[in-house]
Amino acid sequence: MIQELVSKLQDGMNLTYDEVGAAMTEMLAGNTTTRENADFVAGLAEKGETDDELLAMLEKMQDASLKMDAAGAIDMCGTGGDGLRTFNVSTAASFIVAAAGGRVAKHGNYSSSGATGSADMFEYFGYDLGQEPGQVESVLERHGICFIFAQKFHPAMKNVAEARRLIGRRTAFNILGPLSNPAMVRDQLVGVACEEHLRRLPAILKKRGGRRIMTVRSADGMDEFSTSSANSVCMLKDEMTSDVVTPEDVGLHRSLPGDISVGSKDEAVRAFARVLAGTADRAMIETAAFNAGGGLVVAGIADSICDGVQLALDTVKDGGAYRLLEGFVRDTGDIMKLEGIIRD
Questions:
Q1: Is the pLDDT of residue 144 over 60?
Q2: Partners of 93 in the β-ladder
Q3: Is 177 contained in some domain?
Q4: CATH number for the domain including 194?
Q5: DSSP readout, 143-205?
Q6: Contact 228, 218 (CB under 8 A)
Q7: Contact residues for 238 (Cβ-Cβ < 8 A; gap 6+)
Q8: In the list 76, 91, 100, 191, which could disulfide-bond 224, CB 3.0-4.6 Å?
Q9: Could you list the residue range(s) of the whole structural domain that residue 55 is in?
């Protein structure tokens, strides 16, 4: 069956929702070969995936995942691919949102191209990435934030891992990874790698029950809010709206892209912890606050990004963000690692 679909893709034909769903079911069940998987996914990429094709893939990925309950939680992450080695902005912003009263079910993985991914960050501080869904739910209840490790919660994806390596470039899976939170969050901030996805991804998530979806891409290429340029933003609530937001619009200072770059995992970890402690460089703190501001809008806590940014800055300044991190690490990891970074 999958070979027939590959032939259609090679002829430039779009596939139906049901055709893609059937192919994904077979692939995720391990009933196809690596070559078949690679040809199918690469064929979609070369043709250009339609919304229905992406939606069918997303649905089957979530159907095959482990499930957990994270009622009222949001997620904040990017699709990656910006090629910039920044500190882990979305993870820092997630802690700020949680400290400001939100609930965050952070879904992520190890880094594939940057200095560090969200899984690298949590693992560094001793968080057990192999926790079962019930354990992760308990962490969320205790702290208002948890981490959902993609490799643990999407075990079926191991059946397409070799095909992804064989293809060696970005495919639909890179787009869908940040959208496939097993907690089925309804409110989400998604950083995107290209302008085309600003409006497409909210529309896809809406069909999967999305309620408040914000997408962002900065003019300097970052897949998140940047203080070094203007930012294109789409917000899906009752309807889809688009805007351009500069750092000055929300009371922040203009920075340079290199101001938030890091050269290694150790630098990334230090930047992350010091942002939450309020001791990092201004550009790093303000970049995290900018993204937290968007997250607070998505969480329904702030009415505007500007209001959200101010609340985020206040949460860092009054020590709330660091107190949450400290309590989280003390409970779920190795507090000595965090204390060592702050003392250095």
A1: yes
A2: none
A3: no
A4: 3.40.1030.10
A5: HSEEEEEHHHH-GGGHHHHHHHHHH-S--HHHHHGGG--TT--SEEEEE-SSTTHHHHHHHHH
A6: yes
A7: none
A8: 191
A9: 2-63
pLDDT tens figures, 148-200: 999 999 999 999 999 999 998 889 999 998 899 999 999 999 999 889 999 99
Q: What is the CATH number of the domain that holds 11?
A: 1.20.970.10
Measured distance between the N- and C-terminal CA atoms of the chain, rounded to whole angstroms: 59
Reading the block at residue 89, the tokens are 């902005």
Judge if 122 and 259 occupy the same domain: yes
Residue 32 domain-assigned?
yes
Tell me which residue of 240, 251, 232, 170 sits closest to 212, measured CA to CA: 240
* Residue with tokens 């607070």, as numbered in its chain: 296
Q: Which two tokens stand for residue 160?
A: 């397409």
Q: What one-letter code names the amino acid at 34?
A: T
3-state SS of 222-282? Answer: CCCCCCCCCEEEEEECCCEEEEEECCHHHCCCCCCHHHHECCCHHHHHHHHHHHHHCCCCH
Rounded distance between C-alpha atoms, residue 196 and residue 198, angstroms? 6
Whether residues 46 and 88 fall in one domain: no
Residue 176, domain member (yes or no): no
CA 162, 168, 172 angle in degrees (round to 5)?
A: 85
Judging by beta carbons within 10 Å of its beta carbon (0-12, 13-18, 19+), is residue 293 exposed, middle or buried? buried
For the chain, what percentages of helix, strand and coil (3-state, to nearest 5) are there?
Answer: 55, 10, 35
From 63, 96, 111, give the residue that closes a domain. 63
As for how many domains the chain has, the answer is 2
CA–chain centroid gap for 242, Å, is 20
pLDDT band at 116 (very low <50, low <70, confident <90, very high): confident
The reply to whether 294 and 225 lie within a common domain is yes
Q: For residues 37 and 319, what is the distance between their CA atoms, to the nearest angstrom?
A: 49
SS3 label, residue 308: helix
Same domain flag for 11 and 119:
no
